[in-house]
Amino acid sequence: MNNELVEIATSELKQYGIKPEVTHTNGGHIQITWRAVPEKELRCVTTAKTGSDWRNRMNIRAEVRRLLRADNVLKKEEPKPKKHPELAKALNLPQPVTPIPDQLAAMRGEIADLTELMMRTFKMVGIMRETIASQAPPPPPPPAPPEPVSSRSVKIKEFLSLDRWVSLSALARDTGLSPQQIRLKLYYLQRLGEVSVHQGQAKLNEVEPRPKKPRGRAAHKIKAKMTKLNGHARPNGHKQSRAA
Question: 134 or 98: whose pLDDT is higher?
Answer without folding.
Answer: 134
